[in-house]
From TrEMBL, chains A, B:
One of its GO terms (molecular function) is DNA-binding transcription factor activity. The lineage of its organism: Bacteria, Bacillati, Actinomycetota, Actinomycetes, Micrococcales. SUPFAM superfamilies: Winged helix' DNA-binding domain (SSF46785). This is DNA-binding transcriptional regulator, MarR family. The keyword DNA-binding applies.
Amino acid sequence: MGIADDSVEIRSQGWRTLAALHGLIEGELERALTSNVNLSVVEYTVLDALSRQHGWHMRMQQLGRATALSPSATTRLVNRLEERGLLTRVLCADDRRGIYTELTAPGQALLADARPVHDETLERALTQARDMPELAPLVDALPTLTRA
Amino acid sequence: MGIADDSVEIRSQGWRTLAALHGLIEGELERALTSNVNLSVVEYTVLDALSRQHGWHMRMQQLGRATALSPSATTRLVNRLEERGLLTRVLCADDRRGIYTELTAPGQALLADARPVHDETLERALTQARDMPELAPLVDALPTLTRA
DNA sequence: CATAAATGATTGCACACGCAACTATGCCGC
DNA sequence: GCGGCATAGTTGCGTGTGCAATCATTTATG
């Protein structure tokens, strides 16, 4: 068993750690956001991503990449948020196939409510993961990759 | 805006990076495993976790934690794998509430087929992520946390 | 120009998931 | 032993998701 086999095992180990930490954080966020502001994690991700965009509008495809969701799931996700009045569809003039989504005022207001819930829950989840020997190294590594 | 606010933003940034990388890898693994050996990522995770256990048996609850799945999802996941003959339920004598799951010979055989698919796909996904500026730091950090 | 290929987004369908309620077994204090 | 409580696992139900097929619009090709 040579060096190549070791690197395979190291990669798998890193992936398991990544998946475990992701599952822990997402589970905590899901519970906190749904019970407090009635938003799932992906729904929050959409609102948050929109709020970071210039002019607060994005194409469907960008939303799909931002949320790691399929096109069909993206469509229905936007449907749900639009029916709740949190965002609006705006078809862009230059390419009439494309559709922009924009945050509405209620959407921005709900996001303002959701952000502290999200941030505090994330902090609690990370401190919780920090106490697990398997996850601690990854938790410590996260803040170091802010700047390239 | 002081130091505290910065750390909140740094945490959120790290979480977005983690989620993005997780989504990319899981998507690649899902496609590769389903098309080649007809296994989802969680199903592979179960078989892999079982193969790492002494005696190849685990309780349902352990499987739930290993896969970040709810109890109900764990039950039905084991149902699917049992119906395919890849594992068997074995109720343990000391605590008759608990149920052990064991890999069968076909389960081990299928896992042997699936592992190279999994490993090669993981490597491709990581090199792919390595070329994305926002994901590269995390990809590079992963191998460093094997031992801590 | 007309027609084919490509792209953005949506719908039909089957399925995996979480939550809440439920059953069954184990663990107490009395 | 016996009621009360906790724990392990399973089921009913509603819902979010991916895949494949589809429609609409843009771009390329003859």
